[in-house]
Amino acid sequence: MKRIIRRMLLLAAVTSLLALGLTPIAAEAGPRSCENRVNNTVQKLLECVTVEGVREHQAAFQAAADAGGGIRASGTPGYDLSAAYVVERMEAAGYNVIIDEFDFDFFQVVGTPSFEQATPIPTSYIDGTDFDVMTFSGSGSTGTVPFTPVDLSLGDPSLSTSGCEAADFAGFTPGNIALVQRGACFFSDKAANAEAAGAAGVVVFNQGTPGREDLFFGTLGGPGVGIPVVSTSFGIGVALAEGATGSIDATTISETRTTVNVLAESVHGDPTNVVMAGAHLDSVPEGPGVQDNGSGSGALIEIAEQMAKVKPRNQVRFAWWGAEESGLVGSIDYVVNLTQEELDAISVYLNFDMIGSPNFVRFVYDGDGSDIAPTIAVPPESAVVEQLFLDYFDSQGLETEATVIGARSDHFAFCVSGIPCGGLFTGAEGIKTAEQVDIYGGVAGEQYDPCYHLACDTFDNISLEALDQNSDAAAFAILTFAQNTETLNGQKGKGNFSPQNQLKALD
Ligand SMILES: [Zn+2]
What HEC string does 148-169 produce? Predict the structure, then answer.
């Protein structure tokens, strides 16, 4: 395995962090003894892991976003400041800190794009409703020009191979907008052929077959296309095919950038039986991501700090992942670069992505698939992880609900690599039901997180109740496995540190 470790990369960010006054300030919360004592039991640890402590880290993430143009997406200054903050805190706490650099495809739509029909019927189409700038679209303004239909199959849409062959563009007038229909080949092929023919922009309209009629969201797969490309519905495509003029105006950034994962390993503990806990550190380019995922990231900093004096039986490795929002890039890059030996040494992976949603449900990853079958391969020991969380919440008199283990967050690469996995989640764009309101309170018919992936995902976008409960649950699971993984893999741990004894100790 070749792992690039570069501390210099973040030096500039650390310097500006200091200038911003974001340097560590000891949390006021928790018993005074937390600063000195060794939190080697769950009672002690949970006393010291406080919601005020997590909020301190979320405030730092908000400040990083404020200093970085309102966002903390990987490849932007707000992310680098966030990573520098984690590095500072973890080094100060005495962990072995690893900065794991990798490349990823960055994409951002800057400002508000437009897509208009000028003639025959002047129409301003609405972004997100009528059209979408395709992921990895190029940047540009076409001016008002004709839409040129390219080998359309409007009579029998199932036959569409529109734009798939260079020959489709024979006679295409350079400078026009290529009007192509979905079907038969990659969007990137259609866009590349159009660009080669001199098109100023591309409209890809939905195919028109059953289920492919409305606006759709597509990706060109990666950077490379130099002209603006939008997707739209079959209906708008048909209207434009009858002889229309109009324009596309989109400013995008589509390029390869470098970013980092930050890992912090305990100095003590068996390095052949590693307990990992991870959270993605990046936001989407649309907002500051202080809940998604400043909540999970902040909780892990707090837990790591409060565990810093513990000498665990097993090595503990905390991870803050980069470019999760670009397709789980950081965690996948990390896992695929592990040797088999390094992979075998990881006994469990715990994921914390969104644990303070304002309109929350206490979701626990369904490790045994008893309520919702996983949509990815999950090792059977994941049932043990789920059970530990369920037992913990049960001991606190708190109800939970199962959530599917799928490919939505950074546990993915670990689960499919055969590492027992689990985690907590408080909901994203899903809609809260009346039954869930009966249990958790909140508002029925609204999203679990109304600011999910939006600019309003700020410091104030939080349920302190959910954040507090889930931070404790996470701390409980991390310390329990850090001391004893017998239920996972038969490796006996320290003293009476079995999950059952830990639960009893909380009563
Ligand atoms: Zn997330």
Answer: EECCCCCCCHHHCCCCCCHHHH
Q: Output Rg (C-alpha) for the chain, integer angstroms.
A: 25
Question: Residue 106 in 3-state DSSP?
Answer: strand
Q: Ligand 1 centre and the CA of 178: distance in Å?
A: 36
Task: Give 42's Cβ-side CA count (13 Å radius).
Answer: 28
Alpha helices in 178-293 (DSSP H): 187-196, 234-241
Given this model, what pLDDT does residue 2 score?
A: 32
Segments making up each domain of the chain, as ranges: 8-95+266-486, 108-251
Q: In whole angstroms, what is the distance from residue 494 CA to residue 480 CA?
A: 10
Q: How far is the CA of 221 from the centre of ligand 1 (A)?
A: 21
286 is catalytic: no
Whether the CB-CB separation of 331 and 263 falls below 8 Å is answered with no
Q: Please give the distance, rounded to the nearest whole angstrom, from the Cα atom of residue 283 to the centre of ligand 1.
A: 8
Domain 8-95+266-486: assigned CATH number: 3.40.630.10
| Residue 351 Cα to ligand 1 middle (Å) | 10
Q: How far is CA 167 from the centre of its chain?
A: 40
How confident is the model at residue 459, as a pLDDT?
98
Distance, in Å, from the CA atom of 324 to the CA atom of 261, rounded to the nearest integer, reads 10
Cα 98 from Cα 322, distance rounded (Å):
13
Query: In the prediction, which pLDDT does 503 show?
Result: 72
Helix or strand holding residue 84 (H, E): helix 77-92
Cβ–Cβ under 8 Å, residues 18 and 111:
no
pLDDT of residue 21: 47
pLDDT value, residue 27? 45
From CA 290, how far away is CA 74, in angstroms rounded?
14
Supply 248's token pair: 């596309």
What per-residue confidence (pLDDT) applies to 491? 84
Catalytic residue among 195, 265, 286, 324: 324
CA of 284 to the centre of ligand 1 (A): 9
Quote the tokens at residue 25: 């300030």
CATH of 108-251, one of 3.30.70.1120, 3.50.30.30, 3.20.20.70, 3.30.70.920: 3.50.30.30
Residues 305, 92: Cα–Cα separation, whole Å? 9
Q: Kindly give the parts of the chain with pLDDT less than 50.
A: 1-21, 23-28
Tokens of 168: 């489709």
Q: How far is the CA of 281 from the centre of ligand 1 (A)?
A: 8
Residue 444 sits at φ, ψ, to 5 deg, of: -70, 145
Going from the Cα of 84 to the center of ligand 1, the distance in angstroms, rounded, reads 20
The pLDDT score that the predictor gives to residue 504 is 75
